Amino acid sequence: MSETMTASGTRKLKIWRGDLATGELVDYDLETEPGMVVLDAVLAVQREQAQDLAVRWNCKAAKCGSCAAEVNGKPTLMCHTRLDELPEDQPITVEPMHSFPLIRDLVTDVSWNYEVNKLIPPFTPKEDIPTTERGEYLIDQRDTDRMSEFRKCIECFLCQDVCHILRDHRLHNRYYGPRFMVRMASLDMHPLDGLDRKDLAVKDGGLGYCNITKCCTEVCPEGIHITDNAIIPLKERAADRHWDPIMKLFGQGKPPADRKPVRSQQPPDPNSIPGAPSSPGVGPDAG
Ligand code: SF4
Ligand code: SF4
Ligand code: FES
Questions:
Q1: Of 178, 203, 249, 282, which is least packed with CB atoms within 10 Å of its CB?
Q2: 144-172 tens-digit pLDDT
Q3: Higher per-residue confidence, 128 vs 113
Q4: pLDDT digits (tens, 9 = 90+) for 210-238
Q5: What average pLDDT does the structure give for the chain?
Q6: What is the number of other CB atoms lying within 10 angstroms of the CB of residue 238?
Q7: Pocket probe mutation, ligand 2, options 67, 149, 155, 186, max atoms within 8 Å of Cβ
Q8: pLDDT grade, residue 278 (50/70/90)?
Q9: Atom 7 in ligand 1: which residue has the minimum CA distance?
Q10: 250-261, pLDDT tens digit by residue?
Q11: Taking 90 as the threshold, does the pLDDT of residue 269 lie above it?
């Protein structure tokens, strides 16, 4: 059999069914076909056995981020996880993301992420940026290369789901999460951006909570090196100002003269971010 084919046959799925009040893993036996991914299997169950099964998806091409869930305990995209990658001698468990409030079955409310996103000022051009005679901005190719990795983010929020600060410690009111550290690092590295968001990243964003476990990097379907290329450089850039006692003593580590410091207009607290979960949802611990 070709390596790209899954074996036909019956597989057992255990799919989370329920809402915030109550729920359980429900068994479904499914006749599989070659090439199936987990999303195919879940949609087949929905079509043939459980028409009321709630599942969110859109592109089936690993590009919209909608089908993020936990398969065999690991945060992943259902449309990007082949059945033949999963142990054949075990049932396949499919559960909703653990770090966000459950709506129903496999669908969670991820709106907290969009509220956090609003707290980060967008790209703001520096004043008096030199341009070419034709009015074009010039950016070094190395800067473009460095930032383009971050632009691949599809906002699946799998990194937010796996991060223990949000998942286990439920510190949604103190830590923005890896996806938004990526966004702030991307803006901080942009040579034409005129704002300095390092105070925001440390004070409101909770950058110091990250202990570089790299779990977020491991689950990113776009292969973004979240810790090595975004969080660690952001920590290094912020370290002089916030954590170096000698620099503090001599009053250094101030924002560069061509960057204006920003702080959030609305410091987050448990009640200021709608949808911030206050208690664990469902599913096993994944890291
Ligand atoms: S490295 Fe670990 S603690 Fe830091 S954001 Fe990623 S998952 Fe969270
Ligand atoms: S950084 Fe990766 S895991 Fe996190 S939201 Fe973006 S694509 Fe998803
Ligand atoms: S359906 Fe779009 S990422 Fe899976």
A1: 249
A2: 888 899 999 999 999 999 999 999 999 99
A3: 113
A4: 999 999 999 999 999 999 999 999 999 89
A5: 86
A6: 25
A7: 155
A8: very low
A9: 163
A10: 555 555 556 666
A11: no
What are the residues facing 16 on neighbouring strands?
25
Q: How many CB atoms lie within 10 A of CB 178?
A: 28
Residue 113 to residues 24, 25, 143, 175, 276: CA-CA distances in angstroms?
A: 26, 27, 27, 11, 9
Q: Is 220 in the pocket of ligand 2 (CB under 6 A)?
A: yes
| pLDDT score recorded for residue 139 | 87
9-108 homologous superfamily: Beta-grasp domain (3.10.20.30)
Q: How far apart, in whole angstroms, are the C-alpha atoms of residue 220 and residue 111?
A: 19
Q: How far apart are CA 44 and CA 41, in angstroms?
A: 5
Atom 6 in ligand 2: which residue has the minimum CA distance?
153
Pocket test for ligand 3, best of 38, 64, 107, 161 (most atoms within 8 A of CB): 64
Phi and psi (nearest 5°) for 42? -65, -40
3-state secondary structure of 99: coil
Closest ligand to Cα 215 = 1
- Rounded to whole angstroms, the Cα distance separating 215 from 212 reads 8
Q: Where are the domains of the chain?
A: 9-108, 111-261
Nearest to 81 by CA among 90, 89, 72: 72
**Domain 111-261 class?**
mainly alpha
The CA distance from 233 to 244, in Å, is 15
> Which atom of ligand 1 is nearest the CA belonging to 215?
7
Provide the pLDDT confidence category of residue 282 given band limits of 50, 70 and 90: very low
Sequence-ordered list of residues with C-beta below 8 angstroms from that of 184, at least 6 positions apart, any chain: 120, 176, 197, 200, 201, 205, 234
Residue 68 tokens read as 């993020």
